[in-house]
Amino acid sequence: MAKRNYLIGGSSGTGKSSVSSELRKRGYKTIEGDDELAYRGDPETGKPTDAPGFQYHIWDVDKVREIVANKEDGAAFFCGGSRNLHKFIDVFDKVYVLDVDIETLRDRLDRRTADDWDVNDSVNTTEFVLRLHATKEALPEGITINTARPINEVVDAILEGIEI
User: Fold this and answer.
1) In terms of CB atoms within 10 Å, which end of the chain has fewer, N or C?
2) Tell me, what CATH number does 33's domain have?
3) Based on the structure, what is the number of domains in the chain?
4) pLDDT tens figures, 122-136
5) What CA–CA distance (Å, rounded) separates 71 from 2?
6) Which structural domain range is residue 45 located in?
């Protein structure tokens, strides 16, 4: 996909989709992981499952590696989260982790509709996401970007650290 590949991660409500949209507006290649790569499967084997729960939200490893292998663009941004990230984190040149204060996160989550959640409502309550946010469970290590500011400033902060 690109000569340089970047991961934009973060817990639910931290702004991954908004960052992806803004990057796309600015002419960058983006991959919405939750829309383009994700499915419900076992994080170790990749075998599809119908089981509910956050722990089964994974990305297609072969597809990620295939996209990265194509070097047509200068930079590409993969936006989203995956429970099998350990299977392909090595393909990224840099990882950014979006973060926000608890009050802003709670406000963003309160504005979500049922269609905004990846997994069933019994699993993805606001309290569940707030716990994940507090513990940083399932987040990769990377450069933390505060998203409690205008989206253009968030994206500017990310772009300051990339190479093309």
Assistant:
1) C
2) 3.40.50.300
3) 1
4) 445 788 888 888 998
5) 4
6) 2-160
